[in-house]
Hints:
The complex is a heterodimer.
Chain A: H1 12-19, H2 24-53, H3 57-90, H4 100-107, H5 112-115, H6 122-128, H7 130-134, H8 141-162, E1 175-176, H9 186-194, H10 203-206, H11 215-228, E2 240-243, H12 246-257, E3 263-268, H13 273-280, E4 285-290, H14 307-319, E5 324-330, H15 342-354, E6 358-362, E7 391-396, E8 409-413, H16 416-423, H17 433-444, H18 446-475, E9 479-480, E10 487-491, H19 501-513, E11 516-517, E12 519-520, E13 531-535, H20 540-571
Parallel strand pairs in A: 1-11, 3-4, 3-5, 5-6, 6-7
Antiparallel strand pairs in A: 2-8, 7-8, 9-10, 10-13, 12-13
Helix pairs in contact in A: 1-4, 2-3, 3-6, 4-8, 6-8, 11-17, 12-13, 18-20
Chain B: H1 28-31, H2 66-86, E1 100-101, H3 111-118, H4 128-131, H5 140-153, E2 165-168, H6 171-182, E3 188-193, H7 198-205, E4 210-215, H8 232-244, E5 249-255, H9 267-279, E6 283-287, E7 316-321, E8 334-338, H10 341-349, H11 358-369, H12 371-400, E9 404-405, E10 412-416, H13 426-438, E11 441-442, E12 444-445, E13 456-460, H14 465-483
Parallel strand pairs in B: 1-11, 3-4, 3-5, 5-6, 6-7
Antiparallel strand pairs in B: 2-8, 7-8, 9-10, 10-13, 12-13
Helix pairs in contact in B: 5-11, 6-7, 12-14
InterPro entries (chain A): Aminotransferase_I/II_large, Ethylene_sulfur-biosynth, PyrdxlP-dep_Trfase, PyrdxlP-dep_Trfase_major, PyrdxlP-dep_Trfase_small
Pfam families (chain A): Aminotran_1_2 (PF00155)
Organism (chain A): Odobenus rosmarus divergens
Amino acid sequence: MSHQSDTLHLPCGQTRGQSLGSQGTHTRPLEMMLHLQQTIEKHIMQLVTRHQQQDLVLGDQRHHQATGEQEALLGNLVSQLVGLLQSGATGGLGLQPSYPALDVRGDVGGGQEAQSSGQPDQPVHQLKDPEATFVSQHLSNRGIEISASYQANLQDYRIYQGDKYHEDKNPLGFINLGISENKLCLDLMTERLSQSDTNFTEDVLLQYSDWSGQPFLREEVARFLTYYCKVPAQLDPENVVVLNGCSSIFSTLAMVLCDPGEALLTPTPFYGSFVFSSQLYSKVELILVHLDSESTDANPDPFKLTVDKLEQALLEVTLTGKKVRGLVLINPQNPLGDVYSRDTLKEYLEFAKRYNLHVIMDEIYMLSVFDESITFHSVLSMESLPDPNRTHVIWGTSKDFGISGFRFGVLYTHNKEVASAVSSFGYLHSVSGIIQYKLCRLLQDREWIDGVYLPTYRSRLRRAHRYITRKLKALGIPFLNHGSGLYVWINLKVCLDPCTFEEERLLCRRFLDNKLILSRGKTYMCKEPGWFRIVFADRPLRLKQAMYRFYQVLEEQKWDLRVKQPESAQKE
Amino acid sequence: MFTLPQKESRAPATCPGSASTQDLDSNYGDGLERECSRKPDRKMLEFCGAGDPTAMLSSGSSYLSSRGGVIKWFWDSAEEGYRTYHTDEYDEDKNPSGIINLGTSENKLCFDLLSSRLSQSDMLRVEPSLLQYPDWRGHRFLREEVARFLSFYCKSPTPLKPENVVVLNGCASLFSALATVLCEVGEAFLIPAPYYGAITQHVYLYGNVRLVCVYLDSEVTGLDTRPFQLTVERLEMALQRANSEGVKVKGLILINPHNPLGDIYSPGELRNYLEFAKRHELHVMVDEVYMLSVFEKSAAYCSVLSLEGLPDPQRTHVMWATSKDFGMSGLRFGTLYTENQDVATAVASLCRYHGLSGLVQYQMAQLLRDRDWINQVYLPENHARLKAAHTYVAGELQALGIPFLSHGAGFFIWVDLRKFLPEATFKEEMLLWRRFLDNKVLLSCGKTFECKEPGWFRLVFSDKAHRLCLGMRRVRQVLGGKSQVAEEPHSCQTQEPRSQRR
């Protein structure tokens, strides 16, 4: 739990630990001052040595870049300091120190799904608009944080939106393989949703409804999950709560299960948007259980989650006096693309039970298992859950049906108190009655789902996956080859020198400069620099073009490395 | 199950956010705007300890966090009335002796028009861009349409800009988001009371923001021209009181046309309130969700967006939705208009939690674009129906000798039933409310609007004639049996109730 980060963008769990203590308010600015000082010194050093390097054209470019980065870092440090001082001023109100949320700016990228943008590096962009990040006289401190975490994304998002790739109209536009969006079946979905049976506009849909979801939809969801999760007994519609998306479900769960400053355990690499969701409203901390890419005897699979690791992390956190309320798991995993076996799942649940931890189980990719040799086990399929009252399952249609614009997420929990408490938020996360009706019709149509949609969807996923993995193999790039999800988790360490998060960020920027959006390991709180996630659930043509750009960037990068290595050898 | 503590407790004086200015014990009831009741004997602790909801009550639940316990309590207390109503909802054929709901402010008069409009083929477009992640501020086509729509109907002197529009799933979310981005935990907004009580929950749940009531009187005193009149003097006093209690007030909430009073603020009044807010650097959130539901031709409505030269445009934020004016509370569409880009962006940052489906966004754009239908068909018909229903209910009340307030806007009449309470207490008010419910008609009582005088009720008239007649018959029955209990019957005092007891 004590890894070093190369920049200030420490994963949440790290800074929080230090900062929550009463002395945190002072030590943190001090640390940052120190960092600032060092950075300034380094910056001046660079300016001094500039002439010596100018003869090398490439070196100069690199230098420019480096200077820019330094400046970016400086500005960022200053703005963070201001934020800290501001939040310090309000500390007397009994507020949580608010600076941990600053981390979110750096980390939320993986939350691209959330932010709809593929901005790999916020810090630079943040600087373009430094005033907006901290000089708003109209917003509360938390408003400023919330806004800042979003604004950088917004800028990139707008650039992307205004310059989207189109094979004929804009062949030079951005291709987005950063957002985990299923674009393979938009044709099928459009067709199905255009059928007249999904259109219904009666009184009941136009009026206020049950805030936990229309009864007809909750019944359908219960039937649907019973069937697709292979539940031994029929699920109860009363245990279903419908909200406008899984982020909303997660956010409300964090609110009702944890008090501010309490924590949830989660293995990393991990869907980064949850950091954002837990921070944003609920001020809940995620304690990261870092997994290793290396296989050892004790740990044969890369990034394997073990109960040992969970126990160790829990112990460490508990020693700091922090209260851990639950464990968050994603199955099938994002970004690893793997599924948990029934036995390991059971182990995790037993672990949670031993320590009275809630388990938030995100199964949003449950129907996106395309490798036929793999069996997905929903926790709901277990004969007897170790601790049913503390097991809460999340599912939605965004990924499995590729309709992220629908805004629909589901909570299934046996715990009536949790269901009621989450329903209190129904008003703030409600789904239109008309949409609830369409979803009900969709989930009802088993014949179409089983006969048309799923077979087509999975075969397209398989094909796209095969294409991408072949390309990766040909390029000699290591990746984790698993059969679920919309993405591959790839290892580009060899392209980084030195292998730091800063270099990772620069590489990501380079992809972006070449009009390719990928998301990097840092946004998944991966502890090792160099990992990237490529989303392959896109049309073949775009995928092909994307992989061409990918190849070009790697070539550029290799060229740079070759230039750089003799250079550093010379220095030595 | 946990039971909530029965007695109120005050926060320690050191807690700046503890705001003795209101106790949350009363606001949700109607609050959920459909769940028109709550159990009368349930008392909520005063929320105390800014930023520390754990201090509020010790949850008996081993599963929920402390704040989770409080949050659940909101649900349970609302559930109470909701269940009573929904287990026994009136249906002409299936359950003629079921409960008639005159408590929820919903316009049930125009479902025929809306259903047919929303079923037209132009509404049914499905295309990939609508199925994918949207711009969280709302699809551009919709924001453009909203800007045009508001420019026209709010009579804005210059065209409004799409950049200043943020679209989300209802005004509840908007209140929540604004509270979060404008206030720190424990800070407060001013709000004239009585007011639409659900706002309490909206700003509290996520934002942990309080409301400071500016209590208004039914009695017409001084320079007042009408009961419950909001004056700058009252605003100043409430603000001063809050300040002296250490409560940091960040904004003012105005509802115009007003819920539950049905009041419409004149341009002069509006300007005064806005100037007051400017003097104190307060944000003003103007909820104009009933702006097109002004059915009396003589009543002139003025949106803040129509004012030439807003006093403090950077701190003026306007809210509108289709829930009321288009009778589609189930559609979940609300919008913010603010010139303040910081605020717009901050609210948009929260929109991924409060987004609405792309397909609905498309339908809304189509609807708002269809000026012909709105102006030629929908609005005239809607206003005529509202007016007819209002005339009927007002007549009934007059015949019963019951004073009430109504100014030709909104879906409801603010009824003075004080003379039917043997004692001027909220307990008696609740008993009367219960008596209505026992007699199968659901109303909302004044307490849920944080009215400081017991005995006021909100009666919603925007329902179909057969339900309305039956509902009024039941109201009559209750009051007929009850009025004998009252010590001194009063003469009919329409439009101008006098405060008889204090």
